[in-house]
Amino acid sequence: MNRPLFIKWNERSDTGVTLIDEQHKGIVSIINTFYFLMIAGADNKMLYSCISDTMKNYSRIHFITEESFLKEAGYPDIERHQSLHRKLAFQIEEIELLTIVNNDAGRLLEFLKKWWIEHINEEDQLYTRHLHDYIRAMNTGGIREQ
């Protein structure tokens, strides 16, 4: 029953923004669930449901949350970050179809691991300082809500 995780969360992945970190952990959990289902021999319908329903919907919610935080904080590189989110959504659709056609869930799993580790540990770390400065200014009264 105690199987290894495909991706282990580590503190390096934390952005320091509680809701974003919790959502990132949720996405990693979905990827780990997909891995578990795959090695447990789940059928393609179950694997497809995990990615198609759970991963895509949760990612959509996360992207909306993250982008709204960045917009509120006036993050100067928000358009590039949004384009990365759109690119991921498109790539998941594309690889998901290939997974079904070729019956190769491993390819999708590897893509998800690579993309999320790079996105969370590299791309999302680019905005953390900006968000922390914004939050600090809000907490010290340096920024007034409109």
> Can you name the CATH architecture?
Up-down Bundle
Might you state the CATH topology name?
A: Four Helix Bundle (Hemerythrin (Met), subunit A)
| Stretches with pLDDT under 50, minimum 5 residues | none
Sheet with the most strands?
A: none
Please identify the top-level CATH class. Answer: Mainly Alpha
Mean pLDDT, nearest integer? Answer: 85
Number of strands: 0
- Report how far the terminal alpha carbons are from each other: 52 Å
Structural class label:
mainly alpha
State Rg.
17 Å
CATH superfamily: Hemerythrin-like
Q: Which percent range describes the beta-strand content? A: under 5%
Task: Give a written overview of the molecule.
The protein has 146 residues and is mostly helical. The protein has one domain (17-139): Four Helix Bundle (Hemerythrin (Met), subunit A) (Up-down Bundle). The protein is built from four helices and no strands. Helix 1 packs antiparallel against helix 2 and helix 3 runs antiparallel to helix 4. The longest helix has 35 residues, at 105-139. The model has no long low-confidence stretch (mean pLDDT 85).
